Amino acid sequence: CIRIIFSVGKQGCDASVLLDDTSTFRREKTAGPKNASLRGFDVVDSIKSQLESICPGVVSCAENLAVAARDSIVALVRPSRSVQFGRKYSSTASLSAANSNIPSPAMSLDELIFAFSNKGLNDKDMITLSDGRSFCMLLSLSTLLGSHTIGLARCITFRDRIYNEANIDTTYATSSNSNCPSSGGDDNLSPLDASSPATFDNAFYKNLIGKKGPSSL
């Protein structure tokens, strides 16, 4: 749920990423390497179904997604934070808008700073949101790089880094090669934070400083 909420950066947390293809638009779920790795839609659908059976038409899809993401964080760390209700959900989706607005894992630092500045966010906002620990406080901001303190990355999104970049710890690069070969294995998964993959902490930043991560931010 955390990963899904960070995929709606193109126009705010409107749950448009939950929509499937229709005759008038293509879904955002498969927007390039950014959204193609999204999982957990069945969990969100199950939550929504149970809510509708108890209080039909009260909780929107956008609210459902926001609270589910918040509770996912609470399951990892406490205390909890409140989530504002009253969010409206989108009735349409745009594959092209998702591809052009959501930051790509291949972006350079300068490109990321520029992308965030276009949404009214500065470099400090970008760094904070990269880790994701201020998620609840910044949930309503319009574009998010993504929470990288937990979760997995597909081989195709970081292959160039471990094989073609010099700005990387050689031991980390070598250890990543076995799970992400130079060809094939595009969907093989590796932790975004190899030192504490299931903990909501600041190790993501420490890994970046040590050049030990799939991102070269």
- What percentage of residues falls in helices of 4 or more residues? 40-55%
Rg computed from alpha carbons, rounded to a whole number of angstroms = 17 Å
What is the molecular shape? globular
Low-confidence stretches: 132-146
Discrete helix count? 10
Q: What about the largest sheet?
A: 2 strands, antiparallel
CATH architecture of the largest domain: Orthogonal Bundle
Please trace the helix and strand order, writing H or E for each element: HHHHHHHEHHEH
Question: How many individual β-strands?
Answer: 2
Number of domains: 2
- Major sheet: order of its strands? 1-2
N- and C-termini, Cα separation: 24 Å
Sheet/helix structural class: mainly alpha
Indicate the mean pLDDT: 77
Percent of residues in beta strands: under 5%
Output the CATH topology of the largest domain.
Peroxidase, domain 1
Query: Under the CATH scheme, which class of the largest domain?
Result: Mainly Alpha
Could you walk me through the main structural features you see in this protein, from its secondary elements to its overall organization?
The protein is an all-alpha fold and 217 residues long. The chain has two domains: 2-101, Peroxidase, domain 1 (Orthogonal Bundle), CATH 1.10.520; 152-209, Peroxidase, domain 2, CATH 1.10.420. 41% of the residues lie in helices and 3% in strands. A two-stranded antiparallel ribbon has the order 1-2. Mean pLDDT is 77; it is low at 132-146.
